[in-house]
Amino acid sequence: xxxxxxxxxxxxxxxxxxxxxxxxxxxxxxxxxxxxxxxxxxxxxxxxxxxxxxxxxxxxxxxxxxxxxxxxxxxxxxxxxxxxxxxxxxxxxxxxxxxxxxxxxxxxxxxxxxxxxxxxxxxxxxxxxxxxxxxxxxxxxxxxxxxxxxxxxxxxxxxxxxxxxxxxxxxxxxxxxxxx
Length: 180
Prior knowledge:
This protein is mostly helical and 180 residues long. It has one domain. It is built from seven helices and no strands. The longest helix has 29 residues, at 62-90.
């Protein structure tokens, strides 16, 4: 029950982070417990996504469910890697969780919003990427207190990784055209 309260408090505190208000620090728990809460939230998103995919297209086979799950586990891993690199290189004294937990909330919230827009995903793909970029930019500005340039670079690195990692996995799994 405490985990759910922590998760809901994080969701309530994220709009304050986006608007630049300092009260988000009282609402978003950046401890290990807060990390567990945001990962639970992402797991709930993943479960809802697996339920929604058959509604928008052909049925879901067990193999495709595994592939979809693996592809959807890449974004939190990518955000963690970008955040780890950013914090370790630019702010060595800062705990990685201080920036990772809000970044994972950004990922989860935008993913949940995009789940609502799933039937129109082709038309609104650019909107989703722009929303990711704005949220990651605000996370970098609020948590790391980075300048505009570093915050833009952090947001772009996350968006490039969010787009590139699934594409690379699809290219590895898809059969090629064969020898020429």
